[in-house]
Specification:
By secondary structure, the chain is of the alpha+beta class. The protein has 2 domains: about 180 residues, no CATH class; about 90 residues. The chain contains 10 helices and 4 strands, in the order αβαβββαααααααα. It is globular, with a radius of gyration of 21 Å.
């Protein structure tokens, strides 16, 4: 009987381990506070790491090698008592099939980040309740990471995760914290989630799939064909840019991909796409110095 119970506990623990989706590195930068050695900062960093990596965010099983690599770099600019304010930089990546490469998927800096935290307080996510702005912001980015990653593997595969993130937005709006409402500006959690779920920006989500699955993941088979697919994907985003110029999603895409695109089209076989530099200049003029010498 005792052996059976032990076996069941082991199996349960194994299932819990399989279900965890993220491999997230949390870094807390507190230099600007002038009090970096306070224990509350170390406790917070450790608690966030455990919260993100040990919570089961979905009902799907992830083997250890399938967990999504990501990071949250939190800069605390000010704090007083249990009140903190600063920024959170969120990044995620995924492997490229047939290679040892990883490709960046998401790179976003949220400057509307403030929260209350008491040392050692538990961090728990509830789908239908607002417990704290800290939990809501971090959980929002977890589901955004999950959604974007899923979109790179199947067309609009991340919809359910963006909808979960939208539920967080709706629940958090009543808290009065910045970043959750339409009035928060064009670079907010509200705007990011609204645009991801809007048909106005459907080409962005299509591009996530085609760029990764039809482009990068095929690079080991046929570089020229894969590069052509990536170029065509970028050209298709021009339609979205004409509809809504310089959108948040477009800026987010190139903040993640500009260096990679430059490397892809600067090395290896060239392709017959003389208009590529012009396309990229129209989509991401802030990176125009990178586009000038592409093949």
């Amino acid at each position: 009987m005792h052996k059976l119970i032990s076996l069941l506990l082991v199996l349960f623990a194994f299932q819990q381990l399989q279900a965890q989706e993220l491999n997230c590195q949390v870094v807390l930068n507190t230099e600007r506070t002038g009090q970096s050695n306070l224990s509350v900062f170390k406790t917070l960093e450790r608690s966030l790491t455990e919260f993100i990596n040990r919570t089961n965010w979905t009902d799907k099983n992830f083997d250890s090698h399938e967990r999504i690599d990501c990071s949250m770099f939190i800069t605390i600019n000010e704090f007083e008592g249990e009140s903190f304010s600063g920024t959170i930089q969120v990044q995620s990546s995924r492997p490229v099939f047939g290679s040892t490469m990883v490709t960046p998927v998401f790179n976003f800096n949220d400057e509307q980040f403030s929260f209350n935290y008491r040392e050692y307080e538990p961090l728990n996510y509830s789908q239908n309740a607002f417990s704290s702005n800290l939990v809501s912001v971090v959980s929002f980015y977890v589901y955004t990471i999950l959604g974007l990653d899923a979109d790179t593997f199947s067309p609009e595969g991340g919809t359910e995760y963006f909808q979960e993130a939208n539920q967080i937005v709706t629940t958090a709006q009543q808290s009065g914290n910045r970043g959750w409402n339409a009035s928060a500006g064009n670079r907010s959690r509200y705007r990011l989630n609204t645009d991801l779920l809007s048909n106005v920006f459907a080409e962005y989500r299509t591009a996530l799939y085609e760029y990764h699955r039809l482009g990068l993941d095929e690079m080991h088979r046929d570089q020229e064909k894969a590069k052509t697919a990536i170029a065509e994907t970028l050209e298709n985003m021009v339609v979205m840019n004409r509809r809504r110029n310089n959108s948040l999603l477009l800026r987010t895409f190139f903040d993640s991909k500009a260096d990679e695109i430059t490397q892809i089209f600067s090395d290896g076989p060239g392709i017959d796409k003389p208009e590529l530099s012009q396309t990229l200049n129209s989509l991401a003029p802030r990176y125009s110095r990178s586009w000038g010498n592409l093949k």
